Amino acid sequence: MTTQSPSLKTMLEGLIGTLSVSSVTPAFDHSNEPLVALLAGWLESAGFRAEILPVPGHPGKFNLLGTLGSGPGGLVLSGHTDTVPFDAPLWSHDPLKLTEVDGRYYGLGTSDMKSFFALALEAARAFRASDLKCPLMILATADEESAMHGARALAEAGRPLGRHAVIGEPTNLRPVRLHKGVMGEAVRLIGRSGHASDPSLGNNALDGMHEVMSVILDWRTELQQAHRHPAFPVPYPTVNLGHIHGGDNPNRICGECELHLDLRVLPGMDPADLRAALAERVADVGRRRGLQWSVEPLFTPIPPAETPATAAIVRACESLTGHAAEAVSFGTEMPFLNQLGMDTLILGPGDIAQAHQPDEFLALDRIPPTLELLRALIRRFCVEGEDTMG
Questions:
Q1: pLDDT for 324-365, tens place per residue?
Q2: Does residue 171 share a domain with residue 196?
Q3: From CA 160, how far away is CA 183, in angstroms rounded?
Q4: Rounded-to-integer distance, Cα 143 and Cα 384, Å
Q5: How far apart are CA 233 and CA 176, in angstroms?
Q6: Which residue ranges run through the membrane (predicted)?
Q7: Omega before 183 cis (within 30°)?
Q8: Whose CA is closest to 63, among 144, 8, 9?
Q9: Could you say which of 29, 144, 207, 351 is catalytic?
Q10: Of 61, 56, 64, 51, nearest to 29 (Cα)?
Q11: 231 and 165 co-located in one domain
């Protein structure tokens, strides 16, 4: 017999009370090591083998893999250990303390998505390693909210995990099998400044960017006409011109101009191909106008992801929830888990409407159906074995 792990509420209190913010701004960024250590102890007390995996090139950042049972295949219950930064004065309750009010648990990470670890462990209590034909794994990753360093490191390492995966992101307990990719691109033009009284004294980068913007808007129309996916509420790729800055004074010819774009791309579209297509169009304008140009990513793209509707994990979760699998426009770690050979579904008790804002909460009435669902998945994919799903 293993030592009993803490109660569900105690685990929730520990998770919410352990700071694990990740951010691209160093002043806000924290190590997730304390949270990983806490989870590792709970996993071991529940009979799991716990492996703490440093994220290469990112000191203080760790992934954690807990495994119950052994053998090939199996089920991975996955989540990220980090949260976004927070503004404590805007909260009605202490964001780093689990607070129960009016049928809700308030706290940073209750919905997105620390609570999923406690629920996965609570569901796993019903099983021993000797019960399982295929292993059950609980995966906790680093830095999902900033650059997805943890999931990217797992994909680059290429170590096989399970055959089926559920990421417990907030979906209102509705299964999600596909999402768009996310790209951020910076377009920069460099011309030559000069006195505004005589255009021949310079080469106006802002004039050039006006043409670039027209070209990009035409390209956007082409993309929307060529690519459609009916599963998405917005069924085409989007290109948003979100930020522009150029020049420094109205009486000077603009010497430099920079434009930032947001692209949400459909499954089957390659971010590298899209950047190359964008660069080709910008280069065209640059050559015609004698401007230096560049197209650079603002961050490493989050690829689009799609798990087949026929996948066993999709069919199982549709059957158990009574909902057909859906599509969302926000990005997750799904493409990186799929790269490791898993069929991955997104399904969790939280609500995306509560994420990334003050007074984040998880409704208490979501807890029993989540536990029931997770236990059913463990029975189906670990106790009965994968072949039961055909």
A1: 999 998 889 999 999 999 999 999 999 998 899 999 999 999
A2: no
A3: 27
A4: 34
A5: 13
A6: none
A7: no
A8: 144
A9: 144
A10: 61
A11: no
| Whether residue 277 is found in the same domain as residue 295 | yes
Can you list the alpha helix ranges (DSSP code H) found in the chain? 8-16, 33-45, 115-124, 149-157, 205-226, 271-289, 312-321, 334-339, 367-378
Does 213 lie in the same domain as 164?
no
Catalytic residue chosen out of the listed positions 82, 112, 145, 207 = 82
Domain C-terminal end among 281, 302, 323? 302
pLDDT tens sequence across 248-271: 999 999 999 999 999 999 999 999
The arrangement of strands across the sheet holding 181-190 comes to 238-246, 256-265, 181-190, 292-297
Residue type, 378: I
Report the DSSP beta bridge partners of residue 192: 203
Q: Active-site residue 144, yes or no?
A: yes
DSSP bridge pairs for 240 = 262
pLDDT mean over 154-162: 94
CATH at 338: 3.40.630.10
DSSP states of 93-135? S-TTS-EEETTEEESTTTTTTTHHHHHHHHHHTT--GGG-SS-
Respond yes or no: is residue 33 known to be catalytic: no
